[in-house]
Design goal:
Distance between the termini: 47 Å
Helix content: 25-40%
CATH class of the largest domain: Alpha Beta
Strand order of the largest sheet: 14-13-12-11-7-10-9-8-15
Shape: globular
Length: 423
């Protein structure tokens, strides 16, 4: 008997939506991309055909049925969809979340949950009003193979009760600068800033590993390299009069000729990709609301303290994490897929190496798409709940409020603002 297909719809076909197509198709032969929902159909078709195959050609390498490209949910046949991925911007996801739930199918919600506390409240209210809603939060760091090993070690009690976590997220300078190229040209408040767009990954990972919630947060956010404005700032790269002397000019950042040609063809030339005026080559020095050095301290209900830092100008990228407990400690860099465990008094030491899995985010993207499609098949519960997304969001906004006021912030009070009702 032929297995029924799982028909997937993707809302928002930008970089994140594009990046999940291959992991989705690889998650099972019964998976098909049925709907791409984006206001710019021409751009969506361009991206789809460039990265995968011509969506209008029935004879492609995946033997894939014709993909339907539509501008809104109203054009989607409700009898021809089994699951939805919401990968548009935080603001668009917030605005369309309730309508997405009306399809009565499992929803994959990309992080961050929203672009504001009000938006978070709106999403949680809609979710609670739909008793049978199934929402899978897209925290892919949970699905990194090394995370699985760390969770096991903590659960076994090898290091005792965790008391302190040191967490340093280092973005390579070119990666950090890319946020200024991309987000500075848009309404930054729609994205939520680095504590929301980027750090929610990390906040959720800590909450997940120790199974706890924060009570108080103190934070400091600062610009030290990018987004400062001044005499070196210009509008963008491709019109810059000092490109020859700037180390972040696009021709220097892209070290492969084919990458540079693709970039020029895509965004500078006549291309569907820039039909809405979005060209991600804003000057990284142009004055911006984004901050490139962010620190946050969180005190948890169970007594643990988190010391988190994020820098956008590192020479080498990675997530350096140390978890220190009553009986020992473990330390690792998430990029290396290997960790070291030391017990108290150095009585014993051992290393754990995770299985090396191909795919974006250290193999996490294929694993999270497999987990999501398995949930769709089994009609089971989501392993990463919408409330988890809300708590990660609240931590980020508590950080911003603390940085602005230079005081400790009560996270429980902010959780109420965000509509969180769980204790």
């Amino acid at each position: 008997m032929k297995k029924a297909k799982i028909k997937i719809g993707i809302l928002g076909f930008g970089s994140r939506g594009v990046s999940l197509v291959q992991p989705l198709l690889d998650s099972g032969t019964d998976v098909e991309i049925k709907w791409i929902i984006d206001t710019d159909i021409k751009q969506s078709k361009f991206f789809f055909s460039h990265w995968f195959f011509n969506p209008d050609n029935e004879n492609n390498k995946y033997c894939h049925p014709k993909v339907n490209f539509v501008k809104s949910f109203s054009e989607v046949d409700r009898n021809e969809i089994d699951a939805l991925l919401l990968t548009a911007s935080e603001k668009v996801r917030t605005d369309l979340f309730e309508e997405a739930l009306s399809f009565n199918v499992p929803v994959f919600m990309e992080k961050a949950l929203s672009n504001s506390l009000e938006g978070c409240n709106k999403i949680l209210t809609a979710f609670r009003a739909k008793a049978d809603a199934k929402v899978f939060m897209g925290f892919n760091l949970r699905y990194n193979p090394l995370t699985e090993e760390v969770k096991k070690i903590i659960k076994r009690g090898d290091i005792g009760k965790p008391l302190f976590i040191h967490y340093l997220e280092k973005l390579r300078e070119a990666h950090g600068a890319s946020y200024y190229r991309r987000l500075s040209g848009r309404l930054e408040h729609e994205q939520g800033g680095m504590f929301i767009t980027k750090s929610c990954h990390d906040f959720d990972l800590v909450n997940y590993l120790i199974d706890d919630r924060p009570e108080k947060i103190f934070a400091s956010c600062k610009k030290v390299l990018f987004g400062l404005g001044g005499e070196n700032a210009r509008k963008n790269c491709h019109e810059c009069d000092r490109a020859f002397e700037c180390e972040h000019e696009m021709t220097k950042v892209m070290n492969k000729r084919e990458d540079l040609k693709y970039y020029n063809d895509l965004y500078i030339g006549e291309s569907p990709a820039n039909s809405r005026g979005y060209v991600p080559d804003n000057c990284v020095y142009k004055e911006s609301l984004l901050t490139d050095m962010n620190n946050l301290i969180a005190e948890y209900r169970g007594g643990l303290r988190l010391n988190y830092a994020q820098i956008l100008f590192a020479a080498k990228p990675g997530r350096e994490i140390g978890i220190f407990g009553t009986h020992g400690s473990l330390q690792y860099n998430l990029n290396d897929q290997e960790l070291k465990v030391n017990t108290r008094w150095n009585a014993s030491e051992y290393n754990v190496k995770a299985n090396n899995i191909s795919g974006n985010h250290g193999g996490a993207d294929p694993r999270i798409m497999k987990a999501f499609t398995d949930m769709v098949r089994s009609k089971g519960e989501s392993p990463s709940r919408i409330e988890d997304g809300a708590w990660a969001l609240v931590m980020g906004y508590a950080g911003y409020r603390s940085s602005a006021s230079e005081t400790w912030v009560d996270v429980n009070e902010m959780a109420k603002e965000a509509g969180i009702k769980e204790k």
